[in-house]
Amino acid sequence: MAASGLVRTMPRRTDIHSILIIGSGPIVIGQACEFDYSGTQACRVLREEGYRVILANSNPATIMTDPDFADATYIEPLDVDILTAIIAKERPDAVLPTLGGQTGLNLAMELHHKGVLDRYEVELIGANALAIATAEDRGLFKQAMIEIGMGVLNSGVAHDLSEAQLVVAEVGLPCIIRPAYVLGGRGMGIASTPEEFVRMAAFGLDASPITEVLIEKSIKGWKEYELEVMRDTADNCVIICSIENLDAMGVHTGDSITVAPAQTLSDVEYQQMRDSAIAIMRRVGVETGGSNVQFAVHPDTGEQVVIEMNPRVSRSSALASKATGFPIAKIAAKLAVGYTLDEIPNDITKMTPASFEPSIDYVVTKIPRWAFEKLPGTSGVLGTQMQSVGEVMAIGRTFPESFQKAVRSLEQGRAGLNCDAGESLVDSIPTNELIALVEKPTPDRIFQVESLLRRGVAESVVCAASGYDLWFVDQMLAIVQERAELASLNAQDLTARQWRRAKRLGFSDAQLAYLWDTTEAIVRATRIALGVTATFKTVDTCAAEFDANTPYHYSTYEDTDEVRPSTNPTVIILGSGPNRIGQGIEFDYCCVHASFALRDAGFDTVMVNCNPETVSTDYDTSSRLYFEPLTHEDVLNVIDAEQRTGNLLGIIVSLGGQTPLKLASELPQELVLGTSPESIDLAEDRERWNSLCAQLDIPQPAGGTAVNLPQAMDITGRIGYPVLVRPSYVLGGRAMKIVYSNDELSAAMAELAADGALGREGGLSADRPVLVDRFLEEAIEVDVDALRDASGAFQIGGIMEHVEEAGVHSGDSACVLPPPTLSAQTLAVIEEYTAQIADALDVRGLINVQYAVRNGQVFVIEANPRASRTVPFVAKATGVPLAKVAARVMAGATLAELRVEGLLCDPVPGDHVSVKEAVLPASRFPDVDMVLGPEMRSTGEVMGIDRTVGLAFAKAQMAAGNTLPTSGMVFVSLADRDKLAGLTVAKRLVELGMGIVATNGTAAYLSDHGVPVDQVVAKIGEEGVNAVDLIASGAISLIINTPKGSGSRADGSAIRHAGVVHHVSVLTTMSAARVAVAGINDWSAHRLEVTSLQEHHAAGRETNPQMDLGI
Amino acid sequence: MTIRDGALVLADGEIFEGELIGADQEMATGEVVFNTVLSGYQEVITDPSYAGQIITFTYPHIGNYGANAIDFEGKKIHARGVIVRDLSRRHSNWRAQYSLDAMLTQHGLMGIAGIDTRRLTRHLRDAGALPGAFGSAPEAELRHAANNEPGTTGVDLVAQVSTDVAYTSGDPLHPTRIVAYDFGIKTTIVRHLAGIGHVTVVPASTTAAQIVAMAPSGVFLSNGPGDPEMVPYAINAIRDIVDAGVPTFGICLGHQLLSQALGGLTFKLPFGHHGGNHPVRHLATGRIEITSQNHNFCVDPESLAGLVDVTHINLNDNTNEGMRVCGKQAFSVQYHPEAGPGPHDSRYLFDMFTATMNGSVGTGAHHA
Ligand SMILES: Nc1ncnc2c1ncn2[C@@H]1O[C@H](COP(=O)(O)OP(=O)(O)O)[C@@H](O)[C@H]1O
Ligand SMILES: Nc1ncnc2c1ncn2[C@@H]1O[C@H](COP(=O)(O)OP(=O)(O)O)[C@@H](O)[C@H]1O
Ligand SMILES: [Mg+2]
Ligand SMILES: [Mg+2]
After folding, report:
1. Ligand 2 pocket mutation, candidates A850, A851, A860, A935, criterion most atoms within 8 A of CB
2. Closest residue (by CA) to atom 5 of ligand 1?
3. pTM higher than 0.90
4. Can you give the pLDDT at residue B269?
5. pLDDT for A778
6. pLDDT of A704 higher than 50
7. Between chains, do B320 and A1 touch, taking CB under 8 Å as contact?
8. Any bridge partners for residue B312, and if so which?
9. Structure confidence at residue A186 (pLDDT)
10. Which of A317, A1085, B240, B310 is deepest in the core (most CB within 10 A)?
11. Helices A431-438 & A459-466 angle (0-180, nearest 10)
12. pLDDT for B338-366, tens place per residue?
């Protein structure tokens, strides 16, 4: 043969040696773990290729910031000055800006514009500044599209309101306002009236970092598609995946239910779209890597228009990677350093190159998960701004199967597309009303659609109301009709063929049990007796055309199974499902670490998870990946498959948060590794837990459990107010309330009993009572993570002192490690209690205990015999890989053995202080009052590390997007109980050269006590300049506003709202204000320093941290 | 809709159960092959190259966007049957005129749905394309039929699919006169040729003398079904045409016939190339094209050493995908640059044909 296919010219770039990767920072709406997945892949690949990798990311919960993944890991704020300092120190040859989401991309652009890249001779690889600008600047993009003859919509660009008015006069209403350089549709909206237009245009201009919006004709209702394109330096282009949105244009793709591959495009149309995507990639000039191009198609004429292109790896590329098995980020990283697609082997087939377009033989459905129930004041209606906090993906051979699997993956108490107890919520609505409801996109719409179809409403009516394509509606109708048929039978009647039919349409055993009024166990047993079991197929990028070795499986009901036999001892790790507030990337970190540690120790690991954003669902994280819902049925199927083909040792349920823990009691008990389900129950069941504490003589806040109001009243009669009221078996302080009076108590009880959002999560019942505890006011909250093994050996992982007092959910409060103010004696008590609890629960692995310390007395709040949210933070602060150690302990190792092995080390005492700060979705939901309370609302977290508490706190604030000012005016408005503490703070601020503006009462108090107040503002609605006006005018650089107990909060919330809208940092607790002042003090007094995690851990053992708070 | 139970039996005894779709027949037989395209089922089913074959679609949902009169790749359907995991109950697309099921019924083609097509594909991947039979007939009968099905080796399928009479397409006044051999030519190819000249599509049995007498600017050798060795008359004609110095361009079977005309050998691939996602390298430029492929036979370039320059290779298995004849005005590719269905990456080959006909391409060298 004249030439060989795989000619290696070795074009890997040798002129660059070190590469800076910018991560995407805290998890926020629109930017979640997908960038940890892409960043982790990139770090790995680039190091394998021999480059020195420098990583900057403020998010400690990420896997990429593990010190093993980069040569220098900077957990520092993602800010231009900080990045400049990192560049000056590390002198990287190149920056790879396309893997850190919008944050990474925008920062790279800022570094470019500020001349930093030129100054330090750093090259942008992957996409250069011109390409990024061409894609992200909506005006430039539009021009470029017109230039290459793409279909675009009538539109214009505006930089201020008057310009916007001129454009809209041209474009007409309704129109969409689309800000440039934004994330997740931030600031975007469709305006139908002139009033709406003015409001939305102003909002959009404000949301764009370059104050630019595109005003475009609205094409709400057209079909929306996405293509994932890759390009290499030799200009080879391939399409990895096509994605069709079930929700039409007008619902952000991040909030749409999406399906891969595209279902309703003929090849003629698809190829036209493919040609366009490639032409766009070339015109925009993304040199190498992956990009995402969005299109809209007119349903009746097929007209295609380009919506946008993201010149980087995106949420959709993570989805496309998981959907096809083609690792976009990994390949993008290789392309960025010079490889071409044909030089990179396809990981999955091994035999064929990556220069191909994956073909798949299954259907993938993604459904977003929202958190509206935690954000009172939100409408719950979906639109062009993304609001979801997470997503699930499911794989099935057909759409109905993957769709129903996706619905049950959501873990919202739904067993599928209705046919479960939850359907009563929609079934009770009259048909006319329901049709009207379906016109509005909401998370419930799919259930409403099913209910309409089940009532016999015509498909055409449903299509018209929902905007769903007929094909999808008909597929849903297939589910409905199958149900009707099944309803006339019962479990005993079905033939194997009928069982298979039902399962192939995605019906879960739980749905069938509901339909036949029997139990899931009976359904399962009857079905299996007839030989109808789940078969696992493989995701192989090529629709079985080539042999594939990569064990990436999904379940379906077909003739044959493809799981390969294995003889290694195997451990199944149950993941944490979709990201949600209260359970996110931290748990993925723990699962992934467990998998790494156990694989290193010679085990086969099996990951079960359904979140496409994560590292855990990367096919090479574990020995085998099952992309499956985390339900009882689906997990049992995996267990069966593993027992059939391998040597299953057990299952880890304690690293994936509450999701797997809840399943523990339903799994074969002998298979549960680590702490026993019995102990888990002991810690979770309030009555049993209380008696354990009593037995150990560990004080708890007084309290009790109640299933109704009289019982609750009994408790408050005994213990007094205030009390904390909350449901059991929930995470993230869901529906938790601080209650000050009988009236508030009855309101709270009524809400918990109601069949509202919470009813759906389980409601109130004898097995799910309400917990009523005395609320400890002004107590310091403390979080402890610790390890214990089967021999009883125990080690503290970390003790964290919260900045905010107890009552602010631990997930929403800042915390400091090591604890700055607790006495040695208190710490000793905490260690002692923790060890006792761990012993009593016979913990094997991790335990997290929360305490409240009041006047030196330590109360235990709760114990979780599982990995907690803080595990990755502690691991990074102390250098001890807690999750890895825990996994090994669960698989039988002792702490002593692991110490000898070198996996377990002592915590780095450190010359540094670490602060973790929570990030709330305030800017996304400006109308929600983000005052902190016992219900968790943060989506993510950041970490600040520095020499003093003040500096670390200042860095954490900066990383969270609330940079502390060092000059200017501070607005102070305090509840009475906070005034004394406020005095010290205000005094210190004045000493630091800042001015004070205050509301009447606060101003009077401060002046009376000798603190000069520069300006007193009027109450809102009164004569004169009020706080909101002042904040809007830009005169305020920091707001300290504590809510007034249980009284009226109207003014306060308006002030906080103004802070959010005008980007002024808001502190809502005195404790945070105190540390902030220390931060401002230290920040103005010290030089900015950036230090890598590796340096911190190495230097750790020399000096002790400065514990001085500075005030 | 009544469900018609049916089964598919392969010659090696494998059985698959499903439900019959399309035309109501007792039984269909043919060589069972698979295709991995995600869209383009109508073009695939109507492609004359599938004569004698039963097409398995690996993508589970087929029929989603219906069918229409425009997307036919042949005047008739020559495939023997289709195998799908799921036939869409309803279709949805503005281009659709009728459902796929209606199209199958109207053209007398039966299909079988509900099959574990992944199991089948894996089986075919390992065993190679196999004769098979499906229908409502009893299993023993199906097995018997499968065993007696000759498959595509040793049969002249071209004669069955080629046009009986010549026809033309394109601008009658166009100065470029193309004569296209119909070995099973796809409509999309005729459309492309009509875009670069005036085309006369002639029967496969047309002799070299007849062609040369037409004084064409160039001769096109079409795609088509089956084993190239079964079409000796075409091979002879091609040899004379190329020798006469007539610019010649071949696709797929045309590529194989050209190589046979030059004395080269072809061999049967274990399971053929059937999909729309194969990477092919154009050696002259190094560029990779994502290509549409449908062939079971393959040219052995060693057998043509010195006679041709290899121009394209398949990056999946390094097999030959294209060549240019040394010292002649002839070139050909194994894959489908016309797409239909498939990506449009290789349409430049039609421009190359134009350039060859205009004499602006030299001989023997690589050209972009
Ligand atoms: N002209 C338009 N008419 C109606 N909806 C639109 C229009 N342009 C965009 N959208 C909707 O807004 C969403 C977000 O727009 P997009 O430009 O993709 O923002 P982002 O950059 O945040 O992804 C899209 O997914 C689409 O549903
Ligand atoms: N008795 C109490 N007094 C004061 N604050 C409390 C008390 N109990 C709980 N809290 C606060 O409520 C938050 C949530 O309670 P926790 O039991 O940790 O719920 P979850 O299990 O949802 O994390 C705690 O972080 C703490 O700030
Ligand atoms: Mg978008
Ligand atoms: Mg975008």
Report:
1. A850
2. A250
3. yes
4. 84
5. 85
6. yes
7. yes
8. B282, B322
9. 87
10. A317
11. 40
12. 999 999 999 999 999 999 999 875 443 33
